[in-house]
Amino acid sequence: MNAISPVACATAPTALNAALLAKYDGLRVPRYTSYPTAPHFTPAVGAERYAAWLAELDTAAHAGSLYLHVPFCAKMCWYCGCHTKIVARYAPIAEYLGHLRREVGMVADRIPGRLRVRHIHFGGGTPTMMAPDDFESLIALLRARYDVTADAEIAVEIDPRTLTREMAEALGRAGVNRASLGVQDFDADVQAAINRIQPREQTEQALEWLRANGIRHINLDLMYGLPNQSVASVARSAEIALTMAPDRLSVFGYAHVPWMKTHQKKIDESALAGTLGRWEQFAAIAGVLTDAGFRPIGLDHFARPDDELAVQQAEGRLSRNFQGYTTDDAEVLLGFGASSIGALPQGYVQNAVPFDQYAQAVEAGRFPTGKGLALTDDDRLRRDLIVRLMCDLSVDVGAVAEAHGLDAGAFDADLAAMADLVADGVAVVSGRRIDVPEPARPLMRIVAARFDTYLSTGAGKHSRAV
């Protein structure tokens, strides 16, 4: 078995080998942005159950977060795994925003009292395809219907290729204070292979406009495992990204699932790296970022040491939700728009994915809930275990069990069953504490999956483990 070439990186898997990577690459495990995960949601939780859950909310005890899904793009990126639609006219977007505004009001009407909101996130698709006036009007509606705190984080995902100066000005006026820009890769050959031509100057111009309008908290998204990428090319992209002075970077592995996303069939599979190549690409990016002083955060994020994401991780307070790693610990997440997912103390809900089903429900005055899942006590317990592993690479299983009213030894059998992971160096078990060693950081999902009692019924719907 050949060892991976060392890479100067705090997260580089130098202690693992190609055979071990191949062994775990055969597994398909969730990214655990929730537990239980979305493939296990069912129609048993629909509009009536969601309405009842909203009516039970104690707004004095719970703060909330809002997620708004705007599923439109100007052009399809062939790697995309999102629920989005390509449009050439503004009319479909304007019509959709009408439904979105109505849903925002319907939910607010159902909640007793006025929900305090500390985080708002616009995702997609490309939320900034909204007209500037429409975006400002939507923010004004959210402020009118919910108690948006003065220090609330308002974050928007942005495609630099379609951002205009006028939209950047509107974002600033609306109080947006964090922007996440999709980059993926700066290499021209890679961009051509994924149908996303985005010159470096385009990204730099977008950043200039955003910062000029007071939006100084910047995230950049990079990817590895894309066609035509190499260790050298991804390292170069990371170096270019650093010149743009972001606060955070996300480094995602491309999930090739053409049976689910048919446009991915346009990607040349022969140009994709294998397991070892993907691993080396991630390690190269991580090496560049950690050498520059960025802290590795969980599975795939990096942040400056003084960024709140890094601070919360150091203090054991980091959270994880459907948007990934976050400083948002709200137990109430209201999702708006087609396919959006929300979380309440009672469970999860997801809106209908097809646009027509979503629109028809809202126009009829019904919540567009398509499916969901009511949480059990066991779900909440396992969710806490998985979240701490995903955020901290460590969890005191006995302490979590006791916090849920169980005996500290409730998971002793599960810990004993991790002997194979321990032997492979993927986990360390000391008493009732599990640690994921730093070299095995990108394999943490495999450790978390050992607490997932649903996995056997939905494994085929998840991405590759490596």
Automatic annotation (TrEMBL):
Cofactor descriptive note: Binds 1 [4Fe-4S] cluster. The cluster is coordinated with 3 cysteines and an exchangeable S-adenosyl-L-methionine.
Single GO MF annotation: coproporphyrinogen dehydrogenase activity
Quaternary context: Monomer.
Gene from which this protein is expressed: hemN
Pathway the protein contributes to: Porphyrin-containing compound metabolism; protoporphyrin-IX biosynthesis; protoporphyrinogen-IX from coproporphyrinogen-III (AdoMet route): step 1/1
Database matches in SUPFAM superfamilies: Radical SAM enzymes (SSF102114)
Reaction catalysed by this enzyme: coproporphyrinogen III + 2 S-adenosyl-L-methionine = protoporphyrinogen IX + 2 5'-deoxyadenosine + 2 L-methionine + 2 CO2
Entry-linked Gene3D superfamilies: 1.10.10.920, tm_1862 like domain
InterPro entries: Coprogen_oxidase_HemN (IPR004558), Coproporphyrinogen-III_oxidase (IPR034505), Elp3/MiaA/NifB-like_rSAM (IPR006638), rSAM (IPR007197), rSAM_horseshoe (IPR023404), rSAM_sf (IPR058240)
Chief location of this protein within or outside the cell: cytoplasm
Name by which UniProt lists this protein: Coproporphyrinogen-III oxidase
Role this protein plays: Involved in the heme biosynthesis. Catalyzes the anaerobic oxidative decarboxylation of propionate groups of rings A and B of coproporphyrinogen III to yield the vinyl groups in protoporphyrinogen IX.
Domain Radical SAM core: 58-295
PROSITE patterns documented for this protein: RADICAL_SAM
Cofactor: [4Fe-4S] cluster
